[in-house]
Amino acid sequence: MSNKQFLKRLFQAYYEERQDSIPAVDLMEHREFGFIPWEKPIMIRHMSFSNAQTFRDYLVKNSPMHVYSSGSLYMLPNIPDMSKKQYQGCDLIIDIDVDHFPTPCKVDHDKWYCKECEKTGKGMPPHKCPKCGGIKFDGLSWICSECLDAAKTEIKKLLYDFLIPDFGIQKDELHLAFSGHRGYHLKVQNEKIRSLTSEERREIVDYVSGHNLSYEALGLRERGNTIFGLLKDNIGWSHKIVTKIEYLLITYDNDQLRDVFTEFDLSTTVIDSLLKSKNYFLNVLSKNHNVWTMEGFGLANWKKFLDGIVHLISAEIDEPVTIDIHRLIRYPGSLHGKSGFKVQELTLDELDAFTPLNVNEPERDPIVFQSQNIQKIKISAIEVPPTTLKDETYGPYKKGEVVELPNHVAVFLLCKGVAQTV
Amino acid sequence: MGVTLDVIQRYPWLPSLKTYYADLASLNPGDFIEEIFSKYEDGVVEERILEIFNASFDNLEQISTSHEDDLGVYVYLITKILLFALGDRMITNRVANLYSKVNYSKLSQENVFNLYYICHDLGIDLLYNEDAWKFGVTIIKQQTQVKKTHFKLYYIDYLKLASSIKDEYRKLVNVPLEDGYVYILNKNLARLLQEYVRNKFLSENAPPEEEKSSMVKELLKNEEFERIYTTLKKTWEVKKEHFDYALKVDFETDKNISQLFPPCVKEILSKAQEGQNLAHTERLFIVWFLLSLEYPVDAVVDIFSTMPDFDREKTAYQVEFAKRKEYTPYKCETLKSYSLCRAKEYKDEICLEGYYSKTQDEQKKISHPLSYIKVKNYREQRKQRQEHYTKKKPEENQIEKTKLDHKINGKMSPQKEDG
């Protein structure tokens, strides 16, 4: 039996057994559905279901590799021509995917291969191959509790530093889910939000990511030889920035600060000057003064410094997802074909304690195929990094190894495409 | 409590007009015109209407006399009917611009209660607090001044009102936002309402052409209306001559270059052609873009001659300044952030799918509108070569390509572009 046949049967068994736990999304009959079948790597779009049961029946019968529904509402969701669907509005969708930003653990479990010269390296692929300058890479990206924690940190920043305090989003309007692989999805459902155009959604993206922030609009300016900075008392990004600077200067020692500021691409001389004036600067900020004149700091260096601070504050979101009003997103309760994990809905209160790879309550556990039944599989990738699921670590493995693993681990490796059924 | 009659007479575009003038709301445009012209027989209607249109044609920002009475309301409604009948986008833009400016100056002097009820009448979610909210401070010459306002505007309404302004100071990321509301000063609220008024004129949906012409025919049966209509048409014909040549953006050395423009540029030029007011970022971009392609200053200035607020001397000074500074036009990422990218609306293949880079052996995205021209030029020439292989000498194509490459490369950061 091929990998895909094996996995499709497993997915079918899951949908058959757990169909009642697949939720019905709000206004289901007005949403477009999409599926990627196991047989062909194509998206089947423009489908609709009048109720939850016909949708569940479809899942049991077809058990696709991936299942999606639209954030948008249409009068005619099953019409292929987008202009004829009679668009009614779209929920605000935000996606946080750890694949899009660096984490320290990537050096341990991700690998890239240059397609030109076959050079390999650890972590995220560089912009250019250091050996041949090539820009095309293959690679293996893995997940671990550390990078999923990083994704959780970003979603918490988004919720508690932006959406709730600044946008006043109510908790009952927020629908949060673990994506089943590398991150979290957030859907904001509110009648007024549905009326936002793509351009207006871009303004929200800019706000949470700090893009197009104008330091001049916030007060940064040079008059004569004096530089005037930002003030904490000004509500919005000014307040966020000054609070973060204060936090860093108070909490971090000089060595830690040097590491942080080096990441901001500031020169050693400028960093030395900033560290020397640390107490003066803290004093200015805490007294809500705005004279930021400091040796070595012209407007350009201040902007570089502020860019670094903004990067620390902002949330790493997948921008095109939020702007696109016709995007399909993974359906809650469905299975992710690249991990075998369930797309797990969560309340905000559950988020803190949620560790996707080691959940103990079955109703909130994305690892639905957990079992001590043993599956024999053969490793097909050149190498497979260690995998920690349910507090147990498996691997690393090399190509050609035949290993006997608990069902859920075998399913994960098969879904990741690094092993074959034996 | 809501807006009062005097507020409606000052701002007849408010929805409560229908409540105060319920007797008119039931009339069709033809009957309405008939009634008004028979009610005021001494030419006063015509006088007031011509004053508005002539001020619009002359790019004025104020009307000499302000009429806040019943007739003012009727004149507003007849103006809208005339705009419909004239069916000229440029005239509509000019009148919309005048009305929005006049309204801004009235709104910025309005008391807080009226401002609140005006927003309320428009269905805008605006909060008012008698004790002004503090939302920040400014320090000028060591003197701290507290920033206060009586108003907070729901962020979704803010985005809808501010979206056409495209000014970085009004981007959501740069304004004080808390608990879903933007703290907003009276004058900034008046500025947003000004845009509402402008859009109110511009967003009217015209009926199908056949229906429209029979409606216009019916309207023109009224003698006074027909006379005003004809006068306006004649006056506009004369005015229009001053900028009829304005949108010929080709210049002699590159006859067909405007055909290579990306959708973002085409959109701005088409707005200019309609005489729509361009946002600040749109103006900057089009100037920098055309100057990068070595368009003569006069040709660039002419593009703006259709603008409702055109001043040739000031524009020429600003374009000259931009030329000296050699600014680089915005890249695609920036255009997207200013909502100026039009790739999707125009379904433009080059913008959406990019191009195949031979040197890098992969599909690459267009990252700059100037690269777009280069890729499009390459494709056009390839197409021409294929179609007219025997008709044209290859070196002619090469000369054109080299000329264009020289212009574009001189204005962009170095990157490989090989179509």
What do you see in this structure?
The complex is a heterodimer of chains A (422) and B (419). With 422 residues, chain A is an alpha+beta fold. Chain A is built from 14 helices and 22 strands. In chain A, helix 7 (237-251) crosses helix 11 and helix 8 packs across helix 9. The N and C termini of chain A lie close together (8 Å). The mean pLDDT of chain A is 93. Chain B has 419 residues and is α+β, with helices and mostly antiparallel strands. In chain B, helix 5 crosses helix 6 and helix 19 runs antiparallel to helix 20. Chain B folds into three domains: 5-107 and 205-239, no CATH class; 112-197, no CATH class; 257-409, no CATH class. Chain B has helices at 5-10, 17-20, 22-25, 29-39, 44-57, 70-86, 89-107, 112-121, 155-162, 186-202, 209-219, 223-240, 263-273, 280-292, 297-303, 312-325, 332-337, 349-353, 369-387, 394-409; strands at residues 126-140, 143-154, 177-178, 181-184, 355-357, 362-364. Chains A and B meet through helix 5 of A and strand 1, strand 2, helix 9 and strand 3 of B.
Describe the protein's topology.
The complex is a heterodimer of chains A (422) and B (419).
Chain A: H1 3-18, E1 33-36, E2 44-47, H2 52-62, E3 66-70, E4 72-74, E5 87-90, E6 92-97, H3 106-109, E7 111-114, E8 120-122, E9 137-140, H4 145-163, E10 174-178, E11 183-188, H5 198-209, H6 215-218, E12 221-223, E13 226-228, H7 237-251, H8 254-263, H9 268-276, H10 278-286, H11 299-313, H12 319-323, E14 328-330, E15 344-346, H13 348-351, E16 374-379, E17 383-384, E18 387-389, E19 392-394, E20 397-398, E21 402-406, H14 407-415, E22 419-421
Helix pairs in contact in A: 1-2, 7-10, 7-11, 8-9
Chain B: H1 5-10, H2 17-20, H3 22-25, H4 29-39, H5 44-57, H6 70-86, H7 89-107, H8 112-121, E1 126-140, E2 143-154, H9 155-162, E3 177-178, E4 181-184, H10 186-202, H11 209-219, H12 223-240, H13 263-273, H14 280-292, H15 297-303, H16 312-325, H17 332-337, H18 349-353, E5 355-357, E6 362-364, H19 369-387, H20 394-409
Antiparallel strand pairs in B: 1-2, 2-4, 3-4, 5-6
Helix pairs in contact in B: 5-6, 5-7, 5-12, 7-10, 15-16, 19-20
